[in-house]
Write a structure and sequence with these properties.
Number of strands: 0
Distance between the termini: 100 Å
Radius of gyration: 39 Å
Number of helices: 34
Largest sheet: none
Structural class: mainly alpha
Length: about 725
């Protein structure tokens, strides 16, 4: 049996990995089952930003990146930085210095500030005005102060001095100054602006422009490892440039970190090979296209085929990042070479590649073993979508994807409970696949056993909205328990369903429906009618929550707000289990129509109406409700119900707005209506035929008198 604790950890990891997709809507969780062969054979591309942050080991220092949005206004950002750590009086003076027309005026405006703040601000103003000699003089004045006296802006002065030296062309001095920034921060100097991490990028830029390709890659990789999106973006431009310039590529292929960069780029961005992208440091607005809209090839660039030849000639045995290179080659269709590289690696990604290669070879048993290795190797916390990238795949948790693919493989061999186990493990990102198996493939008892063993009731949320999971949907545990509850209700096992309605208010409505079902066996037809109509109202009001299908036809997954679409395709028999179609047929929703519970509610109302006199107000009221419930769902059904009322029911004052404003049925009046009708019928008959009963009474009286005389005579 699947370990519940492991399942919880995997599901939580998948949930956290995909939670970012719920920011805007509507977003829907992904589904892989609709094209099983493609889902199993295709390897999703990775996320470059994620790969860039892992080129070198995660650093254990205290340096941290502080990077604003590219949409931030420069003036606002500068003003906020100038005021950082200052009193209101100090901040006002610095602002006045920035606003001064020249340095002399700025110097006057800053009178009274501490030496480090005064000298730094003058140096920064001079630097931004292009007066680098003055800037360097002022900044060095800050650095010459005793350590306690440069607490405010000493680190900032060091960083700005490095930038000034770099602008003067003193790359050696600038590089040393940038290194000094990091040393000071490592020694405990506060760094609220993240200058230490930014200095790595500055040194990477120096190395790149000096032609030291490997050094540049190392600096940028260290910057990216500190969760710097700027460092990762720099690596992306470096990779593009390496593949556009053979001399740079040859240098890169001698360095392990650069090899890992190239492998990551091939895996995540192979569609960019040989495209005219602006190179790192050269500016530009993006790729160019020809007259037909196709991306224009770079005359100096290489394509995937050429890259493979160069790497192979360089020596695969010494290539670092073999798993990423194998993944990239697999995606590029070089299956033999991908297999050779994947065999050299014991990572989860390599196992995933081997699993897909085994599937292509028709070896499902080997594929299952490799999938298990991949699932074991991917950390539960691994999130490829932590950094958003335009144009990258939507894969976030590789573990969720691997588990869902394992579920598809289990389905193909008719191992339905195993399929549920695996797909539930990846349900936070691929909920429709898990829901399909739970709702349409497993039997009710199989699903109940699975939930009882693996899906415990979650604690109630502390605050409103706390139970929202990925894509705005509830977490898989909550969703699966609710799915089971509704399935049990549809199967008529309402008492069993109660335990799986985790929402207290919804459980009360389910109990009310159960109570109404008990009452519909009352001896009185009017009481049975009242019970049936009570059921009808509950089903109409809470049908989605109590009876709705998660997928088609109701789409409870999105509260019915969007068409659920069709069920996953079973057209590819090689990847569809032999008994799957029969199980799907057996679990069909009846009627198979969107919002099917509305049909059930209308039918219950018609049944109730059949139990009361057709000429009663209750009959008209219930037929009115049944008509209204179908008006926006199935106009033909609404018309049928209305015409039935016209044939049988009595005219009512509110019939003009039939189906819209329906009064509550008067069951008490309906109960006495037959007696009332008999009474009125008797009175009417007597009014028309009064001589007959009078004559009968006279004859009876005469006969009685004659009988009494005879008894006396006798």
């Amino acid at each position: 049996m699947f370990n519940p604790e492991l399942r919880l950890a995997v599901s939580l990891a998948c949930l956290l990995a995909s939670a970012s997709a719920a920011a805007c809507g509507p977003f829907f969780p992904q589904q892989l089952l609709d094209d099983r062969k493609s889902s199993l054979f295709d390897l999703p591309d990775g996320m470059f930003m994620f790969e860039a942050a892992r080129l070198v080991p995660k650093p254990h220092d205290t340096l941290r990146a502080v990077e604003g949005s590219p949409y931030d206004e420069h003036e606002q950002t500068l003003a906020a930085a100038d005021a950082m750590g200052l009193s209101s009086d100090e901040a006002a003076k610095v602002k006045a210095m920035r606003a001064a027309p020249d340095l002399d005026a700025a110097a006057k405006a800053g009178q009274g500030l501490s030496p480090d703040l005064y000298e730094y601000t003058l140096g920064a103003i001079a630097f931004h005005k292009g007066d680098r000699p003055t800037a360097q003089t002022r900044l060095r004045a800050v650095l010459e102060l005793p350590a306690p006296q440069r607490a405010h802006r000493g680190l900032w002065a060091q960083y700005t001095l490095a930038r000034s030296l770099l602008a003067d062309g003193d790359t050696a001095g600038a590089s040393a100054a940038f290194e000094n920034v990091r040393k000071q921060v490592e020694q405990g100097i506060p760094d609220p602006q993240g200058l230490a991490v930014a200095s790595l990028g500055e040194q990477g830029r120096i190395a790149w422009h000096e032609g030291a390709v490997a050094d540049a890659v190392h600096y940028y990789a260290q910057q990216a490892a500190h969760d710097s999106s700027s460092g990762a973006a720099s690596l992306l431009f470096v990779a593009r440039s390496l593949l556009a310039h053979r001399d740079q590529l040859d240098k890169a292929l001698d360095d392990p970190v650069a090899q890992r960069l190239l492998a990551a780029y091939l895996y995540t961005r192979s569609d960019e090979f040989a495209v005219q992208w602006p190179l790192a440091g050269s500016g530009g607005n993006g790729p160019t296209t020809d007259d037909d809209g196709n991306l224009r090839k770079s005359p100096d660039g290489i394509d995937v085929e050429a890259f493979v030849k160069i790497v192979t000639a360089h020596g695969l045995a010494h290539f670092d990042g073999a798993d990423r290179l194998a993944a990239g080659l697999y995606r590029a269709g070089h299956y033999d070479l991908a297999g050779q590289l994947a065999a050299r690696s014991d990572t989860a990604l390599a196992a995933w590649v081997r699993a897909k290669l085994a599937l292509r070879a028709g070896d499902k048993a080997t594929a299952a073993r490799e999938y298990a290795a991949a699932a074991k190797g991917f950390p539960a916390s691994e999130d490829w979508g932590g950094a958003s990238e335009i144009g990258e795949a939507s894969l976030q948790s590789p573990l969720c994807r691997v588990e869902d693919e394992r579920g598809m493989l289990a389905l193909s061999r008719d191992d339905y409970v195993e399929a549920m186990t695996r797909m539930y493990a990846g349900a936070s990102q691929y909920w429709p696949d898990a829901a399909y198996v739970a709702e349409r493939v497993l039997s009710v008892d199989e699903l109940k056993s699975f939930v009882d063993a693996n899906v415990k009731a979650p604690p109630p949320p502390r605050h409103s909205g706390d139970d929202a999971g990925a894509y705005g949907l509830p977490p898989p545990a909550t969703a699966l328990r609710a799915l089971l509850a509704r399935r049990l209700m549809r199967a008529g096992r309402m008492a069993d369903a109660l335990a799986y309605f985790d929402d207290t208010q919804l459980r009360k409505q389910a109990q009310a429906l159960i109570d109404a079902h008990r009452d519909d066996h009352a001896w009185s037809s009017s009481k049975r009618a009242a019970a049936l109509f009570a059921q009808a109202k509950l089903v109409r009001a809470y049908g989605m929550e109590l009876l709705g299908a998660e997928l088609e036809p109701d789409g409870a997954m999105t509260d019915g707000n969007f068409d659920a679409g069709g069920l996953p395709s079973m057209k590819d028999r090689e990847w569809t289990g032999g008994g799957e179609a029969a199980r799907v047929t057996a679990s069909a929703i009846v009627p198979d129509a969107r919002y099917h519970y509305r049909y059930l509610a209308a039918n219950l109302a018609e049944q109730a109406a059949s139990l009361v006199p057709a000429r009663s107000q209750a009959y008209a009221a219930m037929m009115c409700s049944a008509t209204g419930w179908m008006l926006d769902t199935d106009s033909a059904s609404a018309q049928r119900i209305y015409h039935r009322y016209l044939r049988n029911g009595a005219h009512v004052a509110w019939a003009r707005n039939f189906g819209h404003d329906c009064p509550a049925p008067d069951f008490a009046a309906a109960r006495w209506l037959p007696w009332k009708l008999r009474y009125h019928a008797t009175r009417h008959w007597a009014r028309l035929h009064w001589p007959l009963p009078l004559g009968g009474l006279l004859v009876l009286a005469a006969g009685l008198a004659m009988w009494k005389r005879r008894r006396k005579t006798a």
